[in-house]
Amino acid sequence: xxxxxxxxxxxxxxxxxxxxxxxxxxxxxxxxxxxxxxxxxxxxxxxxxxxxxxxxxxxxxxxxxxxxxxxxxxxxxxxxxxxxxxxxxxxxxxxxxxxxxxxxxxxxxxxxxxxxxxxxxxxxxxxxxxxxxxxxxxxxxxxxxxxxxxxxxxxxxxxxxxxxxxxxxxxxxxxxxxxxxxxxxxxxxxxxxxxxxxxxxxxxxxxxxxxxxxxxxxxxxxxxxxxxxxxxxxxxxxxxxxxxxxxxxxxxxxxxxxxxxxxxxxxxxxxxxxxxxxxxxxxxxxxxxxxxxxxxxxxxxxxxxxxxxxxxxxxxxxxxxxxxxxxxxxxxxxxxxxxxxxxxxxxxxxxxxxxxxxxxxxxxxxxxxxxxxxxxxxxxxxxxxxxxxxxxxxxxxxxxxxxxxxxxxxxxxxxxxxxxxxxxxxxxxxxxxxxxxxxxxxxxxxxxxxxx
Length: 452
Ligand SMILES: Cc1cc2nc3c(=O)[nH]c(=O)nc-3n(C[C@H](O)[C@H](O)[C@H](O)COP(=O)(O)OP(=O)(O)OC[C@H]3O[C@@H](n4cnc5c(N)ncnc54)[C@H](O)[C@@H]3O)c2cc1C
What we know:
This protein has 15 helices and 19 strands. It is of the alpha/beta class. The strands form 5 sheets. It has a 6-stranded mixed β-sheet with strand order 3-2-1-4-19-18, sandwiched between helices. The chain has a 5-stranded parallel β-sheet with strand order 6-14-7-8-9. Strands 10, 11, 12 and 13 form a 4-stranded antiparallel β-sheet that branches. Flavin-adenine dinucleotide (FAD) is lined by residues 13-19, 36-39, 42, 44-46, 49-50, 81-83, 103-105, 107, 161-162, 165, 350-351, 355, 369, 389-390, 392-393, 396.
């Protein structure tokens, strides 16, 4: 038996863009890393949240994540969900680890803030995360999750980049369906690349000939407030104003290409119910005062629609044992993402640490989502370039990993017996889920041939 030397052993929970980058950096510093992932495959938002028209970006990032995780100092533990298969408390107090890094992302949709709305989930109301999951996976033969039927004239409540993804999915899917009725089978990716008008022209058609209502995006503030691109906190007023104006252009380009409707300064305040289903929303007008949207009383108006999609942000899932402040976790030291100190300190990184944490603000502007990156993400950049945002997420994770590594390595290493006991637990779980210790072999076993 090979002798084990004293070492640091860190568990990273969530194996995707942030988790794999952090694991790679820690392992590169001689730290033993156990990567715990709820799914069989480790690709997170890239596989399930980045719409599948980002064909190349998704495939490239799958390969990058594979490269990072296929490292001798990393033990992969798939099909293991913290909070279900393994409690957070047990991991923190029972395993004797040097540290835990939480990189499990932000997968809970922020609830639509209208009382009683959630009673209509899947009965007229759909949230963004399950909708995009369905869109990304429904062409796979083995897909057995919920089925959604995008309907013309849907309401989308949102305003950020993800809500524009939702609007694109609805417009593309309803256009494909309308073309199918005419006996035309079109390609989803072509519609996304070329835009709806351009593709319809090939058939001597125009949007109005399809006789379907476009979906409509409602945003509670002004177009120029839309969080499509980041404005650095230290931007001088003139530059900040130019960046706000650029958001108007981004939205305008997206509307011309995907032909959806838009209304600013509107907020949902009530539900319209019909036959036990959600049949639309009451919308009030708002005004922006001191940067905040204030609802104007007595301005409600019924907006009828057979589908409402809520896309108002994703937040980390609450984990029993992790203190929370509102919808985010509570930090002991947000600068390094330290959630809990003690024998096994707990850090958070990646999307878990919320989009706009101090760490992000302290980075050079290169990691923020600028106007061009937002356009490239949405497929409306003048130069035709494309972006997945994974690069900026990885760069942020890289920086977070350096801070965390600096913190951990100031502590005492674990003695060999403790390391053996941790590795015994890892093997036990790996055997239980059928993972035989070869990362590449596992990935080829759990990747369907028709994975998009
Ligand atoms: C629409 C959109 C907008 C974006 N906007 C921005 C932006 O403004 N700024 C920016 O920097 N980046 C942005 N991104 C990029 C985003 O940060 C990346 O998608 C990145 O991939 C997120 O990586 P992550 O590793 O933090 O999270 P994820 O990719 O979500 O990975 C989390 C992993 O943890 C796993 N997991 C979850 N819960 C558990 C559990 N309990 N136990 C075990 N495993 C678990 C999941 O299965 C998943 O594999 C955006 C992406 C999209 C699609």
